[in-house]
Design goal:
about 60 residues, mainly alpha
Length: about 60
């Protein structure tokens, strides 16, 4: 039980050393991630649509 207590005490000590992002940084990072995910989703949707049409054209 003592090892577990020491583990969590060490975790708490290390968490105090973490440099957490400020609200503005977090907002900017979130917008960047959401924009990137949307761009990649639209890109693959267009690629999928193009491949589907190409396969349809080859089959017919």
């Amino acid at each position: 039980m003592g090892r577990l207590t020491n583990f969590f005490r060490d975790v708490a000590r290390e968490m105090k050393k973490v440099s957490w992002p400020k609200r503005q940084e977090l907002t900017r990072y979130t917008i960047t991630v959401v924009t990137t995910v949307l761009f990649v989703a639209v890109f693959f949707w267009v690629v999928d649509l193009g491949i589907s049409e190409l396969i349809r054209a080859l089959i017919n």
